[in-house]
Amino acid sequence: MFYRPADGHPLPHNPLPALVAPRPIGWISTRSSAGDNLAPYSFFNLVSYAPPQVIFSGDPRDTVANARETGVFAMNVVEEAAMAAMNATSAKVARGVDEFALAGVAKAECSTIDCPRVAGAPATLECRVLQVVELKGGHNTLVVGEVTGIHLRDDCIVDGRFDVTRFHPVGRLGYRDYAVVRDLVQMTRPD
User: Fold this and answer.
1) What pLDDT, in 10s, does the model give residues 154-190?
2) How far is Cα 108 from Cα 67, in angstroms, rounded to an integer?
3) Mean pLDDT computed over 46-62
4) Start-end of H helices in 44-178
5) Can you name the CATH fold of 22-180?
6) Which of 77, 78, 74 is nearest to 112 (CA)?
7) Which pTM was predicted?
């Protein structure tokens, strides 16, 4: 089967999100004059080491608007135990509704930026906005941020490594599907 995205797809459901999977979920927290906000973004990733930078993209309302207004955001790692709360924060609610409270998620303050974070997250990246790019399509905005601080939950550090098997990160697949990391496979790159 072949199709051109501009012509639409011939399947009952769009296969594109299922093709690029699993995708990490950036559970993005922000603060603005309207209040605190928490929302998951599956169009998210780490894109460089030095300096560390991340990207996320989506609808330009709330999270993107808050990051643009304040110049900061925090990216919280989603663990298996927080899947239901993460999903609850994806609800479309009025601006100013605090999704932390809506989903019963404990919040803490960031250290390098004026922004809330998920208190029990396995890891949080505190970020300063470097660039906001309007992407083709009208409702697609890309936010690039530089990581200014990193929180790691102590129980996730084993033998000097951040151990994902201690909390089981969640990834986004296509449709309504998610993946939970439980098994690891190690390979050494050729020199």
Assistant:
1) 999 999 999 999 999 999 999 999 999 999 999 999 9
2) 18
3) 93
4) 63-70, 83-88, 99-103
5) Pnp Oxidase; Chain A (2.30.110)
6) 74
7) 0.94
